[in-house]
From TrEMBL, chain A:
Signal peptide: none
Residues spanning the membrane: 12-34, 79-97, 123-148, 154-181, 193-216, 236-257
Keywords assigned by UniProt, alphabetized: Membrane, Transmembrane, Transmembrane helix
Any one annotated GO CC term: plasma membrane
Name used for this protein in its record: ABC transporter permease
GO molecular function, one term: ABC-type transporter activity
Pfam families: ABC2_membrane_2 (PF12679)
Species annotation: Haloplanus salinus
Taxonomic superkingdom: Archaea
Automatic annotation (TrEMBL), chain B:
GO molecular function ontology, one term from the record: ATP binding
Family matches, as InterPro entries: AAA+_ATPase, ABC_transporter-like_ATP-bd, P-loop_NTPase
CDD domains named among the record's database cross-references: ABC_DR_subfamily_A
Assigned keywords, A-Z: ATP-binding, Nucleotide-binding, Transport
Keyword Nucleotide-binding belongs to the record: yes
Name of the protein in question: ABC transporter ATP-binding protein
Length: 262, 294
């Protein structure tokens, strides 16, 4: 049934595991630093307060006096939202354009499967990194905070991960869309990186300005780990909106891919 | 009923016509060669037949299914084996993993038999494959689900001469069992050896479709002679000498006549060296289909 997804996912196993280990190690390093910061006499919150608003908002830095605020800012707003968003867009960009460019896709499309199906199954293979990282990261982060004796509330930690899935799907979808439009594989991947990064910047720099609405086109605006971890508020409207956008992008990409010349 | 029917097939890329109003059909159980120089539009036709590109005008039908109708063509694809020009694979998988994947998509009842004839190193990653090994892997996948029709773009490119001959033998055997074969080539000799009929394409237009014996008569051989005393065109007064050119004691011409007559005419000369070879396809076009082959 999902031959292509399995075939593609197998090729993602090593990269996904490497990324999971790398992210996990980075998370542990950040968490390991926390007790020193929490116990230091320096008034870090005052320092944060003195930063420009767009900077504070962009990196979700609000307070470092609680483990929630610290992990949200240092780990989730930056590494998770930005780095993983970029990774998914890059991976999405590599789904089709490179295979079309090299001619690899011909051998698949010569079999009795539809283009839409091949494209969708390839997109599904991105579920592997999304699932693996959303399982490994909360385990590592929770374990790390327990080890330093500042445990996070595991419930809100899981919520952050659950609600980041629609966001990651949008980033993957952006990559997929570029991969169906552009003719060169590396161009689609680089365009995916550039676009997600630009959207992230647009969201950050417009916050607190008269053109704050401009940043509303960025998916990063609809995911706020600080809000969930620190303030323990769960908003389901934004993730729902992201899910709808992801579905629209994927369906549009599949429709375009079905009819274009290869 | 024809297996492939091409009707007015036209494909334009911007202002360039890659295929212009092509008309031909391929009957069940024949090997049809699609001959033309590089860049003539052979691959463009094949991509349209396989539904990868949509015709600008006209259409083609495979087993009666219009290639513009994705759903109908998909049904027919279970009966088609496809070999693209310069086949490309995911470099990080092994040949076996690739074939397993293809088997899941379309079946592989003849895989083992084919691997007895064509021997890519299955347990190595494809990134380590030579061009010939990639070609063999592609040949195995093209035939492994026992298709009724083969569509192949330059199937022997990259194969060593022995494997080429093995492939030609295999192809004739398949034809004798009723399989229909459509393949493109830019090598006249190959088309002559295995095809029943040949379509010749140049600059996107189909110049002629002939049975292969006619082409044999028209194609001729390229003869290069080194004689002890200079040979003149007047001295070589026999039928079938075309494009005679000489330089000192070296002479060169295309010969379409009877070999006995040629050797009789040469009997008066002491021959130092002789070479009789397939003419380059450009020569064939130049001499027999008019115009200059650039």
């Amino acid at each position: 049934m999902i031959e292509t997804t399995r075939y593609e996912a197998r090729q993602r196993v090593r990269g996904t595991l490497a990324f999971a280990v790398l992210l996990g190690a980075f998370a542990l390093l950040i968490i390991y630093l926390y007790p020193t910061i929490a116990e230091s006499s320096a008034d870090i919150d005052a320092l944060i307060e003195s930063l420009p608003e767009s900077f504070r908002e962009g990196f979700g830095a609000e307070t470092y006096t609680t483990i929630e605020g610290f992990v949200a800012a240092e780990l989730y707003q930056t590494v998770w939202v930005l780095l993983l968003g970029l990774y998914m867009a890059y991976a999405g960009g590599g789904l089709l354009a490179g295979d079309v460019e090299s001619g690899r896709l011909y051998l698949v499309l010569a079999t009795p499967v539809s283009r839409k199906r091949v494209a969708f199954e390839k997109f599904l293979s991105l579920g592997l990194p999304i699932v693996v990282l959303n399982v490994s990261m909360p385990l590592v982060v929770f374990g790390g905070t327990v080890a330093i004796d500042y445990p996070l509330d595991p419930y809100y930690l899981l919520v952050v991960h659950l609600l980041s899935i629609p966001y990651l799907l949008v980033c993957s979808g952006i990559g997929l869309a570029l991969s169906t439009i552009l003719d060169r594989g590396d161009a689609a991947q680089r365009a995916g990186l550039a676009l997600v990064f630009l959207l992230f910047l647009l969201d950050s720099v417009t916050i607190g300005t008269d053109v704050e609405w401009l940043g509303a086109v960025s998916p990063t605006r609809y995911l706020d780990p600080t809000e969930i971890l620190l303030h323990e508020t769960i908003d389901l409207v934004d993730p729902l909106l992201l899910s709808i956008v992801a579905i629209v992008i994927v369906l549009g990409s599949l429709g375009h891919f079905q009819h274009r010349d290869l | 009923m024809a297996v492939i029917e091409v009707e007015g097939l036209t494909k334009a890329y911007g202002d360039t016509l890659a295929n212009e109003d092509l008309d031909f059909s391929i009957e069940a159980g024949e090997i049809f060669g699609y001959l033309g120089p590089n860049g003539a539009g052979k691959s463009t036709t094949i991509r349209q037949l396989m539904g990868f590109q949509t015709p600008t005008a006209g259409t083609a039908r495979i087993f009666g299914n219009d290639v513009r109708n994705d759903r109908a063509l998909r049904g027919a694809k279970a009966r088609i084996g496809f070999l693209p020009g310069e086949p490309a694979f995911t470099p990080s998988v092994t040949g076996r993993e690739f074939l397993d994947y293809q088997a899941e998509l379309k079946g592989d009842e003849r895989r083992d038999e084919l691997l007895g004839l064509f021997t890519p190193p299955l347990d190595r990653r494809i990134r380590e494959y030579s061009t010939g090994n990639k070609q063999m892997l592609a040949i195995v996948q093209a035939f492994m689900h026992d298709p009724d029709l083969l569509v192949m773009d330059e199937p022997t490119s990259g194969l060593d001469p022995l494997k080429q001959e093995a492939f030609h033998d295999f192809l004739r055997g398949e034809r004798d069992h009723g399989t229909t074969v459509f393949f493109s080539s830019h090598i006249l000799g190959e088309v002559r050896r295995v095809c029943d009929r040949v379509g010749i394409i140049r600059d996107g237009r189909l110049i002629t479709v002939e049975i292969v014996e006619e082409l044999l008569a028209r194609g001729g051989k390229q003869v290069r002679l080194h004689t002890e005393t200079p040979l003149t065109e007047a001295a070589l007064d026999i039928d079938g000498v075309v494009g005679f050119a000489s330089e000192g004691r070296e002479a060169q011409f295309t010969f379409t006549g009877d070999y006995d007559a040629l050797f009789a005419a040469l009997a008066d000369y002491r021959i130092v060296d002789i070479e009789i070879d397939e003419p380059p396809i450009e020569e064939v076009f130049m001499h027999f289909y008019g115009g200059d082959a650039e």
